[in-house]
Design goal:
With 246 residues, the chain is of the alpha/beta class. It has one domain: Glycerol-3-phosphate (1)-acyltransferase (3-Layer(aba) Sandwich), CATH 3.40.1130. The chain has eight helices and nine strands. Helix 4 links the parallel strand 3 and strand 4. The radius of gyration is 17 Å and the shape is globular. The termini are far apart. This is 1-acyl-sn-glycerol-3-phosphate acyltransferase. It comes from Undibacterium oligocarboniphilum.
């Protein structure tokens, strides 16, 4: 059975590459979003991951905002894309992943090399222009994945882009649960685990549900990036009901 799932994923990845190569160059931004949303939904279905969206924003939703979320797995990008196809800021390592890295790049992912301050500045300036142009930008401020049950410190640098672009920050929470509503261990993508290791664990495990929760948007007017980052992290921690790594 797992071999069949791997084969289906391979075929789906190839179909995605054909879509990027043959349809994206001739598609409007709106059609691209529809294609990305549908492809992401289909990928998650093959991986036996259901998506459940909950709006806990209490009406505080921003039309134009910088989207942030906790980070559990490579699945997170595709879970968010089922609701809002975004241009993600992701670690440069993903670019080297077979097939998936190329697809992420074609979908507009912005790759950021770790520890390179000049690179951070270049990415930051580009984000401001893209946000002001109306593009939907998202990133994971923890900077890496964390096991469910923890929330790592939020890096504040890229929050400055929302402040300069004069837009709000829209936090989301992602959690993966089993049939009993508990954290699903197969979703964790941590340590030395490779993409293939993670995919194998997900396909061998019982079906999981990816819960995507939208929280109230956070104003950046007159704020400092560290305060906005801390406010976003606190909101995510409260929604998850988990402790934090310091």
């Amino acid at each position: 059975m797992i071999v069949w799932h791997f084969f289906r994923i391979f075929v789906h990845l190839m179909a995605g590459m054909l879509t990027c190569a043959c349809q994206f160059p001739f598609s409007s931004p709106e059609r691209r979003e529809r294609l990305i949303r549908r492809w992401s939904q289909q990928l998650l279905a093959i991986c036996t991951v259901d998506v459940a969206f909950r709006d806990a924003s209490e009406g505080a939703v921003a039309e134009t905002a910088l989207i942030v979320s906790n980070h559990v797995s490579w699945l997170d990008i595709f879970v968010i894309n089922t609701l809002h196809p975004c241009h993600f800021v992701a670690k440069a390592d993903i670019r080297s992943w077979p097939l998936v890295g190329w697809l992420c790049e074609q979908a507009g992912t912005i790759f950021l090399a770790r520890g390179k301050q000049r690179e951070v500045r270049r990415i930051y300036e580009g984000l401001v222009h893209q946000i002001q142009a109306g593009k939907r930008i998202a990133f994971f401020p923890e900077g890496t994945t964390a096991a469910q049950g923890t929330v790592l410190p939020f890096h504040a640098n890229l929050f400055e882009a929302a402040i300069e672009a004069k837009v709000m920050v829209q936090p989301f929470v992602i959690r993966y649960t089993d049939a009993s509503g508990q954290f699903h261990a197969a979703a964790d993508f941590i340590g030395e685990m490779t993409f293939v290791d993670s995919l194998r664990a997900i396909l061998k495990a019982p079906r999981m549900t990816a819960e995507l929760i939208r929280l109230p948007a956070i104003s950046t007017e007159g704020a400092h990036r560290r305060d906005v980052a801390q406010q976003a992290r606190s909101a995510v921690m409260q929604a998850l009901g988990v402790f934090a790594e310091t």
